[in-house]
């Protein structure tokens, strides 16, 4: 065993190793992981984009050049979001640039895909016939691991991981071979949550990245513009096609004061969600600035950006600062920090006098710890008031489960500090307390530093390094479906049935610190900042002392087990096999092209009432196993949506037979008869995940249009990509005029253009042969 230093920009690493010199790149190949250093010699001017991208380089020179062109054209101060986006424009000399109006043609630096969405993305890429992806791309296996066998920290979720590898062998083999053939890096099951892996290894300040997960926005904590997209958008980027994005507005959040005491980074975004609501960020980037920014760690900034998806934002972003530099150095990317320092003012910071479309100001000195929910992530309560509110609303006070994720090293350390104080007085968790390490690197590091042992002594349990209950991958056994109960998590989403498929579960989202404190009390009616806590006696008379934890490990990170497979230089001979009889994977066939005619006499499949997220349209949980098989997963279409006609889920009237049945069954019946259909929706339709299955399934089962009061950004784009017309009511009140038995005609489609009204006509028709006078024609965008 030798102790070596990976150049002046890298912390020490203890590993068996050997030195090799591939071309102009000096690399240290360790037994568990391969770290690539900055290029030397002839390539001295080029710096690798990451430790895993030896032939892809930081694009700062090109970005700066593009930005100079754009700034000269616009002749005004730019926000940070604008600098990063506009510097990635494909044609900076001619591109129309108007916030909220024009469509930008962009060249992202990389693509990231999680295993559930990567299946459809790679199937689409295979259909393109291209031999290799055009930009650095990675697949991350984190979604298909179900939390079933709860283990102690000592075991480390190994049984759940082993079970997932066995159940999903066909899918993992497909993804790994497809990655090898087409030049995509593959992070194996157990690596960790995609967003944490990206932050630790790939995100850099000024990056533009698209990812097939709505929480790709996590990367804004390290200064990258990282945007969640559907698989078809990712394929465009991998196929070297400019990626289109409506030029976003910019909402500024000015932070003053500083974080202290029980207030955490999570409380910032919980409060912003309270202010903006779940749709207040739609069509905008949330840009944080002000003196309060420097009081937040890099991983804390990532936590804030991560939950920005819950307010509908295109993404969220922080300016480059010393906290990011420290994180880059600690994750063996000091060479990136050196280059970022050179463009910090010109590229990675907003110009003085830059104008925002809206500004929110938060004084961190006055911000109280928050807990949001149930059933929606924007229903905010200060911790001092949530107990009383729960009593008034009839929400269950007793907490059944506490779950922590967003698990950076700092999060784990702060939770451990609470636990240590409690255990001095013999107090342990009163409820099941689960922790999900964000990555294999975090797991290995907290094990080495004794944090894992502290949580183990507390009674904590660990799930595999994966998404688990946050996305519904939870085989929960402690309550029956329909049983009213409360859980408290540090996840981001808490839609009805999201975590455990139980619509009666009241899920509240908060910080890891509050999850830990509430686990000590076992009730929502507890404020750890001031309330008494009893053990055998009253041990904390005026609240629990505030948590604390190191921002970064003093000894550096332990990478843990090697979980990465790099693609070969030439993957042309790798075989990718999809069994035609598979129930998990299915090669795609092109949808029927539009015939150029208006869409007339469309049947209404369902008129959705109230919130309709992508979970309602295409449920996750047990359905994740069919994400690579379009026909099979289409059997979950709209099963969680509430039918406005009867107030029930997954029960609609077949307008041909008059019989009632499950939504997918009725849609299949229409498709078999050649009957085209539409769905009618409410506000912020398609909120939540980036999953394009919520657009693919309606198209596959005969849908032609979705008409709603308003859309969430990603879902509207996904519908367009799959040939579904996403239309919004010009007058939202017209939603109430539509009856489920109406027939819909969409007219003048040959003149369809962005922002142009589409003629709409509706008529009553109980049977296909019945002809009645049309209602007065209405117009919809």
Describe this structure in words.
It comes from Timema genevievae (Walking stick). GO terms for molecular function: 4 iron, 4 sulfur cluster binding; aconitate hydratase activity; metal ion binding. InterPro entries: Acnase/IPM_dHydase_lsu_aba_1/3, Acoase/IPM_deHydtase_lsu_aba, Aconitase/3IPM_dehydase_swvl, Aconitase/IPM_isomerase, Aconitase_4Fe-4S_BS, Aconitase_4Fe-4S_dom, Aconitase_dom2, Aconitase_mito-like. Belongs to the aconitase/IPM isomerase family. This is Aconitate hydratase, mitochondrial. This protein has 781 residues and is of the alpha/beta class. Among the domains are: 371-541, Aconitase, domain 3, CATH 3.30.499.10; 599-773, Aconitase, domain 4 (Alpha-Beta Barrel), CATH 3.20.19.10. The strands form 10 sheets. Strands 11-24-23-22-25-26-20-21 form an 8-stranded mixed β-sheet, with helices on both faces. It has a 7-stranded mixed β-sheet with strand order 35-34-33-30-36-37-38. A hairpin with a 6-residue loop joins β1 and β2. α3 crosses α7 and α8 packs parallel to α9. The longest helix has 15 residues, at 60-74.
Task: For the structure shown, list the relevant keywords.
single chain, 781 residues, alpha/beta, Aconitase, domain 3, Aconitase, domain 4, 8-stranded mixed sheet, 7-stranded mixed sheet, 38 strands, 26% helix, 20% strand, globular, disordered N terminus, disordered C terminus, iron, Aconitase_mito-like
Question: Summed up, what is this model?
Answer:
The protein has an eight-stranded mixed β-sheet, sandwiched between helices. It has 21 helices and 38 strands. It is α/β, with parallel strands linked by helices.
């Amino acid at each position: 065993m030798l102790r070596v230093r990976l150049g002046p920009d890298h912390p020490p690493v203890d590993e068996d190793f050997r030195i090799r010199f591939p071309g102009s790149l000096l690399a240290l190949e360790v037994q568990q992981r391969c770290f690539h250093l900055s290029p030397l010699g002839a390539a001295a001017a080029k710096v690798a984009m990451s430790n895993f991208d030896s032939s892809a380089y930081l694009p700062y020179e090109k970005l700066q050049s593009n930005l100079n062109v754009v700034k000269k054209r616009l002749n005004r101060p730019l926000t940070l979001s604008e600098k990063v986006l506009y510097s990635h424009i494909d044609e900076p000399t001619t591109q129309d640039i108007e916030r909220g109006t024009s469509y930008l043609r962009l060249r992202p630096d990389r693509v990231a895909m999680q295993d559930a969405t990567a299946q459809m993305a790679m199937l689409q890429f295979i259909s393109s016939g291209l031999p290799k992806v055009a930009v650095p791309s990675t697949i991350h296996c984190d979604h298909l691991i179900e939390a079933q066998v709860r283990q102690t920290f000592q075991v480390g979720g190994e049984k759940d991981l082993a079970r997932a590898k066995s159940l999903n062998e066909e899918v993992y083999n497909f993804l790994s071979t497809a990655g090898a053939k087409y030049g995509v890096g593959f992070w194996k099951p157990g690596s960790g949550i995609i967003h944490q892996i990206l932050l630790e290894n790939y995100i850099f300040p000024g990056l533009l990245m698209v990812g097939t997960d709505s929480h790709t926005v996590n990367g804004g904590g390290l200064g990258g513009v990282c945007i969640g997209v559907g698989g078809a958008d990712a394929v465009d980027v991998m196929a070297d096609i400019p990626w289109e994005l409506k030029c976003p507005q910019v909402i500024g959040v000015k932070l003053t004061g500083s974080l202290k005491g029980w207030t955490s980074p999570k409380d910032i975004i919980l409060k912003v969600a309270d202010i903006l609501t779940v749709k207040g960020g739609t069509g905008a980037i949330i840009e944080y600035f002000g003196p309060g920014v420097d009081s937040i760690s890099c991983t804390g900034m990532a936590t804030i950006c991560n939950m920005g998806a819950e307010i509908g934002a295109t993404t969220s972003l922080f300016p480059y600062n010393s906290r990011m530099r420290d994180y880059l150095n600690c994750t063996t990317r000091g060479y990136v920090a050196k280059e970022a320092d050179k463009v910090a003012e010109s590229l990675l910071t907003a110009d003085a006098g830059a104008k925002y479309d809206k500004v929110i100001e938060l004084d961190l000195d006055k911000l109280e710890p928050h807990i949001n929910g149930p059933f929606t992530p924007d229903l905010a309560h200060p911790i001092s008031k949530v107990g009383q509110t729960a009593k008034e609303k009839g929400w269950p006070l007793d907490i059944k489960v506490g779950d922590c994720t967003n698990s950076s090293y700092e999060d784990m350390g702060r939770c451990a500090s609470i636990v240590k104080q409690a255990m001095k007085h013999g107090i342990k968790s009163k409820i099941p307390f689960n922790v999900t390490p964000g990555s294999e690197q975090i797991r290995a590091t907290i094990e080495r530093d004794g944090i894992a042992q502290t949580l183990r002594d507390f009674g904590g349990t660990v799930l595999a390094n994966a998404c688990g209950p946050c996305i519904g991958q939870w085989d929960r056994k402690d309550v029956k479906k329909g049983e009213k109960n409360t859980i408290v998590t540090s996840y981001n989403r808490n839609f009805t049935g999201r975590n455990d498929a139980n619509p009666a579960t009241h899920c509240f989202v908060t910080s890891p610190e509050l999850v830990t404190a509430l686990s000590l009390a076992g009730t929502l009616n507890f404020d750890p900042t001031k309330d008494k806590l009893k053990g055998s006696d009253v041990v904390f008379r005026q609240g629990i002392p505030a948590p604390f934890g190191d921002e970064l490990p003093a000894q550096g990170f332990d990478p843990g087990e090697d979980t990465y497979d790099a693609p070969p230089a030439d993957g042309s001979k790798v075989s990718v096999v999809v069994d035609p009889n598979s129930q998990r994977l299915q090669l795609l066939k092109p949808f029927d092209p539009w015939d150029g005619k208006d869409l007339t006499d469309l049947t209404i499949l369902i008129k959705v009432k109230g919130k309709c997220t992508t979970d309602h349209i295409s449920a996750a949980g047990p359905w994740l196993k069919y994400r690579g098989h379009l026909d099979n997963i289409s059997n979950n279409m709209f099963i969680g949506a509430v039918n406005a006609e009867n107030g029930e889920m997954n029960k609609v009237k077949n307008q041909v037979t008059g019989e009632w049945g499950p939504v997918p069954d009725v849609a299949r019946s229409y498709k078999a008869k050649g009957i085209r259909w539409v769905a009618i929706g409410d506000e912020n339709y398609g909120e939540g995940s980036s999953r394009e299955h919520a657009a693919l399934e309606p198209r596959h089962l005969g849908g032609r249009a979705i008409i709603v009061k308003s859309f969430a950004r990603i879902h509207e784009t996904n519908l367009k990509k799959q040939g579904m017309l996403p239309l919004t009511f010009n007058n939202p009140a017209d939603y109430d005029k539509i009856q489920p038995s109406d027939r819909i005609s969409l007219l003048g489609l040959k003149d369809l253009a962005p922002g142009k009204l589409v003629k709409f006509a509706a008529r009553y028709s109980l049977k296909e042969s019945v002809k009645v006078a049309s209602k007065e024609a209405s117009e919809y965008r």
